[in-house]
Amino acid sequence: MIRLVRPVLPTALADRLPGLTAEIEESAQRTRTARALWKRAVVRRNVHAPLRRLLEGMAPGFQRCMYCGDSQGTDIDHFEPLSLNPLRTFDWLNHLLACSTCNSNLKRDRYPVDADGTPLLVDPTTEDPFDHLLLTLSLGVYVARTAKGAATIDVCGLNRPVLTQGRVHARRVVLMCLNRWTDAQARDARDEMREAVLTMQGQPFADVCQAMLRLALSPGADRVFKDTPWALDVLRNGDLRGELLA
Questions:
Q1: In the predicted model, is pLDDT for residue 166 greater than 80?
Q2: Which of 156, 174, 201 is the last residue of a domain?
Q3: 67 lies in the same domain as 142
Q4: Do the domain assignments include residue 196?
Q5: pTM over cut 0.70
Q6: Domain HNH nuclease, which positions (predicted)?
Q7: What is the model's pLDDT at position 246?
Q8: Which of 16, 140, 215, 238 qualifies as a cystine partner to 168, CB 3.0-4.6 A?
């Protein structure tokens, strides 16, 4: 999971949403009305489609799930579930792109809150997941830094084996790309340098590359990269960081 920037809705789309919310608010059975509206054909055509295009554009990699970062995002997920707050059904700030595994099989209607009612799930569009989650690169495992991090790991199943193994593989890919970028830089082969960057940006598990960039500047960087000390200089290169963090 990485930090994502949510764009402003186009005016035409933004103008459609308040009327749908008002229809839910006026209903005596708000949840039922919200579900019916969400499934309405004209809504799927005029609201779902443009919302999905926007979410795909802000998703990591090639339209990857905003929770696991692995599978393609196929669903528009309601971060705060429709069943718990139907009035947020058409709230743009409540929409994320998710794969069916994260959305339908794991998260579902789960939305833990603390004793004060504060949500305990990380929203990658409003906060930095790395404030709550620490990625152990060698194992591909997330460790919670906060209660919110622990709840997010649990609800989204962030440490299921297919993800931890995928992150370990992604780390190998990033290291190979860093090596390729370094070699191309020495030869001033700009096209090859750009190809290495595009490979890192486009692969699943964008969180692995982002974590490596951050950890390279951390006080314990020498320990984290003790098996690949050469990678530290590359990850600290300003030109490369500028491209990968853009």
A1: yes
A2: 156
A3: yes
A4: yes
A5: yes
A6: 50-104
A7: 75
A8: 140
CB of 34 closer than 8 Å to CB of 155: no
Residues 151 and 47 in one domain: yes
Domain count, the chain: 2
On whether both 141 and 181 belong to a single domain, the answer is: no
* Strand partners of residue 71: none
Q: Which residue has the tokens 């490979």?
A: 199
Torsion of CA 109, 136, 235, 186, to 10 degrees: -110
Domain that holds residue 68: 11-156
Is residue 4 domain-resident? no
32: in domain: yes
Q: Which whole number is the average pLDDT over 37-55?
A: 95
